[in-house]
């Protein structure tokens, strides 16, 4: 065993002299200490056959040889690393005139989604649930349950995308269908908002999109009045715009509320002077709203003699336009990074 260790050591030293790269050094280390075939490992496995009175001496010798080889390997590794580094420094140069590489691009949340998250948070803090509803909706929930029968002229104002061969389905034209869905699922009393996408077959312009966002609000309780409705609307606008805004309330007709209103806001883009965002009127139609029609409460399974409620349907894309002074609604879905990177 002693001779074997001594010749292993000699053989190792001869090969160490010839190792001229880190890779060769790695290979040499494997031939000595490799777990399966390493020469030293193989010898160590034979320790069990050494006579008992020899075990101590041989064991100590093995440890000495192992430590010596390991130290020499480490020293040689450090030397080779220094040499390789020196070679890199000598052969590679830095061209200080080279133009800077473009910075790594990081995405971020779309401005519409940012405001929707802010709105959801604002309403959660007022005790509202944040609900979801299907974008492909039944004609029943989109119109019938909201007191808009087939022949009703109110259908004309919401130019609908129908589904080929399935007249009973539509792309929802507003978030209001979730009103009846929410009543049926959660009953009364109820406070809920529903942010989401809606679809209309509209010719687009600065303030109209075919695919746009609304935020439906619904409160059902005993003793609900128009004062509650106005209080929540004002809280909503000042909470998001972070400033006081001038609003006006005028009568508005929606078959699912009675009475119905249109809450307009002084245009924040042009400060009332007239621009594309406000159709040059100085006012932006912001929040249609009203007290929930008794027929809609009945469709939702709620007794109109006990409960009343208010609902609103915020055009949330228009709110974002007002918040940031965006003059054309079509920017949102244009995919133009010059627009998106501003938020
Ligand atoms: C409705 O959709 C009703 N569901 C709102 C409602 C809910 C009334 C609850 C009463 C109670 P309207 O069609 O007006 O209403 O649309 C609501 C808002 O969506 C509008 O005030 C406007 O801000 C926005 N909006 C309407 N059409 C478009 C469009 N083509 N592009 C962008 N925003 C639009």
TrEMBL record:
<dbReference type="GO" id="GO:0006432">
    <property type="term" value="P:phenylalanyl-tRNA aminoacylation"/>
</dbReference>
<dbReference type="Pfam" id="PF01409">
    <property type="entry name" value="tRNA-synt_2d"/>
</dbReference>
<keyword id="KW-0436">Ligase</keyword>
<dbReference type="InterPro" id="IPR004529">
    <property type="entry name" value="Phe-tRNA-synth_IIc_asu"/>
</dbReference>
<comment type="subunit">
    <text>Tetramer of two alpha and two beta subunits.</text>
</comment>
<keyword id="KW-0479">Metal-binding</keyword>
<dbReference type="GO" id="GO:0000287">
    <property type="term" value="F:magnesium ion binding"/>
</dbReference>
<dbReference type="InterPro" id="IPR002319">
    <property type="entry name" value="Phenylalanyl-tRNA_Synthase"/>
</dbReference>
<keyword id="KW-0067">ATP-binding</keyword>
<dbReference type="GO" id="GO:0005737">
    <property type="term" value="C:cytoplasm"/>
</dbReference>
<dbReference type="GO" id="GO:0004826">
    <property type="term" value="F:phenylalanine-tRNA ligase activity"/>
</dbReference>
<dbReference type="InterPro" id="IPR010978">
    <property type="entry name" value="tRNA-bd_arm"/>
</dbReference>
<dbReference type="Pfam" id="PF02912">
    <property type="entry name" value="Phe_tRNA-synt_N"/>
</dbReference>
<keyword id="KW-0648">Protein biosynthesis</keyword>
<dbReference type="InterPro" id="IPR045864">
    <property type="entry name" value="aa-tRNA-synth_II/BPL/LPL"/>
</dbReference>
<feature type="coiled-coil region">
    <location>
        <begin position="2"/>
        <end position="29"/>
    </location>
</feature>
<dbReference type="GO" id="GO:0000049">
    <property type="term" value="F:tRNA binding"/>
</dbReference>
<keyword id="KW-0547">Nucleotide-binding</keyword>
<dbReference type="InterPro" id="IPR004188">
    <property type="entry name" value="Phe-tRNA_ligase_II_N"/>
</dbReference>
<keyword id="KW-0175">Coiled coil</keyword>
<protein>
    <recommendedName>
        <fullName>Phenylalanine--tRNA ligase alpha subunit</fullName>
        <ecNumber>6.1.1.20</ecNumber>
    </recommendedName>
</protein>
<keyword id="KW-0963">Cytoplasm</keyword>
<keyword id="KW-0030">Aminoacyl-tRNA synthetase</keyword>
<dbReference type="InterPro" id="IPR006195">
    <property type="entry name" value="aa-tRNA-synth_II"/>
</dbReference>
<keyword id="KW-0460">Magnesium</keyword>
<comment type="similarity">
    <text>Belongs to the class-II aminoacyl-tRNA synthetase family. Phe-tRNA synthetase alpha subunit type 1 subfamily.</text>
</comment>
<dbReference type="InterPro" id="IPR022911">
    <property type="entry name" value="Phe_tRNA_ligase_alpha1_bac"/>
</dbReference>
<feature type="domain" description="Aminoacyl-transfer RNA synthetases class-II family profile">
    <location>
        <begin position="115"/>
        <end position="321"/>
    </location>
</feature>
<dbReference type="GO" id="GO:0005524">
    <property type="term" value="F:ATP binding"/>
</dbReference>
<feature type="binding site">
    <location>
        <position position="258"/>
    </location>
    <ligand>
        <name>Mg(2+)</name>
    </ligand>
</feature>
């Amino acid at each position: 065993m002693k001779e074997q260790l001594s010749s292993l050591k000699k053989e190792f030293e001869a090969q160490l002299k010839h190792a001229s790269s880190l890779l060769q050094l790695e290979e040499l280390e494997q031939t000595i200490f490799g777990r399966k075939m390493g020469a030293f490992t193989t010898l160590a496995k034979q320790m069990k056959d050494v006579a008992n009175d020899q075990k101590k001496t041989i064991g100590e010798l093995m440890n000495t040889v192992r430590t010596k080889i390991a130290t020499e390997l480490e020293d040689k590794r450090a030397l080779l690393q220094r040499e390789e580094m020196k070679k890199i420094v000598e052969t590679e140069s830095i061209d200080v005139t080279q133009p800077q590489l473009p910075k790594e691009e990081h995405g971020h949340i779309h401005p519409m989604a940012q405001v929707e998250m802010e709105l959801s948070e604002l309403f959660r803090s007022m005790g509202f649930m944040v609900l979801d509803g299907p974008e492909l909706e039944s004609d029943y929930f989109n119109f019938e349950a909201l007191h808009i029968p087939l022949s009703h002229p109110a259908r004309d104002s919401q130019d609908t995308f129908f589904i080929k061969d399935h007249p009973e389905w539509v792309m929802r034209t507003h978030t209001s269908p979730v009103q009846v869905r929410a009543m049926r699922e959660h009953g009364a009393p109820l406070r809920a908002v529903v942010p989401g996408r809606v679809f209309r077959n509209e010719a687009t312009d600065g303030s109209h999109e075919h695919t746009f966002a609304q935020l439906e609000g619904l409160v059902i309780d005993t003793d609900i009045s128009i004062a509650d409705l106005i209080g929540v609307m004002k809280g909503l606008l000042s909470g998001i715009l972070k400033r006081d805004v001038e609003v006006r309330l005028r009568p508005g007709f929606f078959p699912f509320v009675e009475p119905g209103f249109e809450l307009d806001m002084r245009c924040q883009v042009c400060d009332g002077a007239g621009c594309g965002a406000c159709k040059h009127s100085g006012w932006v139609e912001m929040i249609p709203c009203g007290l929930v029609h008794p027929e809609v409460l009945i469709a939702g399974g709620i007794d109109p003699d006990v409960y009343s409620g208010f609902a609103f349907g915020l055009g949330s894309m228009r709110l974002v336009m007002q918040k940031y002074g965006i003059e054309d609604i079509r920017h949102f879905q244009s995919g133009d990074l010059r627009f998106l990177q501003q938020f």
